[in-house]
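Re: [ENG-882] Designed sequences occasionally contain unexpected residues at chain ends

Forwarding the minimal case from QA. Structure tokens:
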């Protein structure tokens, strides 16, 4: 349920309602709009008797939130959430391009890629130090030394960094080095990890599980939100279908569906969505046309030598061409 306060309700009235709600054992999440305060009331699944709150001073009305996700829903917060990463705003008018290699492989590989993607227009650097691989015999990432290389690239380029965190125990370490904690598709329903990411308060890029519904993605975001962290970006990265000519099937539908149901920004990853570099630019353009707030693109200076995801990685010059094409689409839909 949400409690909508009258515009002009005093801080004392809001505090009184909050203390009543908490006194009944519910959790409170405040959303301070430009005009009025909205108090989200979240508890267990028992129905809440709303009438007892409607009589309180300063309350305009109460509204049930019927969807299973509450804090993630537009009913709770109508305005778009903008996640700010050291000055880079995700969820505003600008489409944010996050780019870099699938994995940090070496200092020279990452620094070379970081400079190239910055030059081409990326404003966030990606690169995995901890890699979730299907096979235990595949390259698992450089681990902490990889995080140190990312921090060096950040200092060199000024680009905020997004990198994957795979377990709750890793959250403090990764948060010390990176601006954004990436929760990968394979961990979308790792509830202990979602809990830890929520408590960290650090920005999170939450990727859709490869066999998860949009509702399941939003429920995972709800875990992070309910642990006190609103700085979440949702990422569509393709789902598994019967189609074999691409690695995954990019669910373009997810973009307008999520934008309608949730206030959280949506990032599209056409690299994992297609699995083949030839298709990445076309799907990136489609994503921007469909209303995504950002793109996550894999770039490698020598894709044939990449230790992971070479087939879907763009060479820097192809990435620069993609940015130029996407810029035109962004302008056509009133973004930049
Ligand atoms: C990645 O971004 O390199 C990655 C492992 O993505 P996903 O979790 O979507 O497979
Ligand atoms: Mn990858």
């Amino acid at each position: 349920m949400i409690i909508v306060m009258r515009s002009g309700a005093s801080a004392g009235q809001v505090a009184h309602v909050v203390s009543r709600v908490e006194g009944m054992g519910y959790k409170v999440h405040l959303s301070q709009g430009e005009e009025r305060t909205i108090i989200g009331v979240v508890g267990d699944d028992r129905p809440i008797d709303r009438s007892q709150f409607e009589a309180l001073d300063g309350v305009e009305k109460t509204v049930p939130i019927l969807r299973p996700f509450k804090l993630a829903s537009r009913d709770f917060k109508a305005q778009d959430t903008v996640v700010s990463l050291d000055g880079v705003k995700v969820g505003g008018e600008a489409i944010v391009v996050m780019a870099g290699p699938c994995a940090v492989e070496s200092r020279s590989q990452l620094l070379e890629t970081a400079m190239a993607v910055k030059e081409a227009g990326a404003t966030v650097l990606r690169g995995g130090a901890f890699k979730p691989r299907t096979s235990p015999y595949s390259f698992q990432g450089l681990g902490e030394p990889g995080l140190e290389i990312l921090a060096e690239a950040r200092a060199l380029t000024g680009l905020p960094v997004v990198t994957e965190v795979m377990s709750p125990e890793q959250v403090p370490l990764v948060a010390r080095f990176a601006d954004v904690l990436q929760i990968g598709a394979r961990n979308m329903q790792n509830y202990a990890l979602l809990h830890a990411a929520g408590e960290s308060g650090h920005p999170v890029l939450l990727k859709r599980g490869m066999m998860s519904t949009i509702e399941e993605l939003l429920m995972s975001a709800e875990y992070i939100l309910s642990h006190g962290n609103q700085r979440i970006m949702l990422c569509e990265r393709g789902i598994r279908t019967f189609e074999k000519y691409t690695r995954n099937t990019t669910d373009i539908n997810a973009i307008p569906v999520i934008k309608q149901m949730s206030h959280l920004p949506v990032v599209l990853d056409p690299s994992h969505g297609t699995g083949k570099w030839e298709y990445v630019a076309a799907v990136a353009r489609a994503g921007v046309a469909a209303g995504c707030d950002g793109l996550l693109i894999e770039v490698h200076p020598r894709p044939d030598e990449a230790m992971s995801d070479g087939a879907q990685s763009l060479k820097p010059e192809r990435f620069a061409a993609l940015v130029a094409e996407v810029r035109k689409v962004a302008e056509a839909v009133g973004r930049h």
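QA comment: On inspection the terminal residues look reasonable. The CA atoms of residues 102 and 127 lie 5 Å apart. Proposing we downgrade this to a documentation issue.
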